[in-house]
What we know:
With 237 residues, this protein is of the alpha/beta class. The protein has six helices and 13 strands.
Amino acid sequence: MNLVLLFDPDFIDNERSLVTLTGRRKEHVLSVCRVKAGDTLRVGRLNGNTGSGKVESVSDQAVVLKVKLDSPPPEPLPLTLILALPRPKALKRCIEVITALGVKKIFIIQSFRVEKSYWSSLALSAGELREHLLLGLEQACDTVLPSIEIRKRFKPFVEDEVPLLIKGTRPLVAHPQAEKTCPYDSPTPITLAIGPEGGFIPYEIGLLQIQGFEPVTLGKRILKVEHAVPALIGRLF
Ligand code: SAM
C-alpha cells in the first residue's frame, strides 16, 4: 500500500480535514507502517486529489489523520483494454496490474476459448472486482477508479459497440502468431484486445480485423495472460 485511499465516510470533520482509518487500512498502517502520532502518510481521496495525512491519534479502534489533499492523481494511460475473461486467479492479478498501470476503461468479454465456468466465478462479482481495483490504485498512488464493463457475447460486442469504442484510437489485437511486431511508445491512444488462455480463434481475429484491429505479436514466447498484459502495456507506452 503506497497510498492510503480515503472514502467519503472517512471524513469525520470536513472543516478540520480530519479522517479516520478503520479496518484493513488501520491494520496496515499500524502493523506494516508502524505509524505513531506525528508521522505522515501518503493519502488520496477516491476519485479526487492526493496529498499527505498527518497522524493525529492512534487507538485500537481507529487512526485519525489530518489531511491535505493538494495534488492531482497521476495521468491516466490513453489505452482501452478489451480482455477475454481469464481464469479467476489470473483475472484478479490482471485487474490489479491493469489498474496500477493507469488504464481507466476495461471491457471483460466472452470469447470462444473462455472456459464457461469462469463466468460464475466470485472473482467477477462487483465486490471482488472493486477490491482488486482498489489494490491497484493503492499500489500506484492513484485515486481514479477504472470502469469495468462485462460483455458476454463476442460478435454483437465487436460489431455493434467496438466501432464507436475505437474511434480516435489505434486498435490492436495481441496475437502470438501475428506477423507484425507490437509497436513501442505509441504516440496515439490505443485500444488493445487480449485473448483468453487458449487464444482468440481465427474467426474472432477476422472479426476484429474487419473493424480495423491489427494483430501484433511480442514474439515467439507465448506469455500467460497476466504476464502478457503488463508486457504489452509497458511496450506500448
Ligand atoms: N495458445 C494461445 C495462442 O497461441 O494464441 C496462447 C494464448 S496466451 C496464453 C493468451 C493471450 O495473451 C493471447 O491471446 C494474447 O492476446 C496474449 N499473448 C501472450 N503471448 C503473446 C505474444 N507472444 N504476443 C502477443 N500476444 C501474446
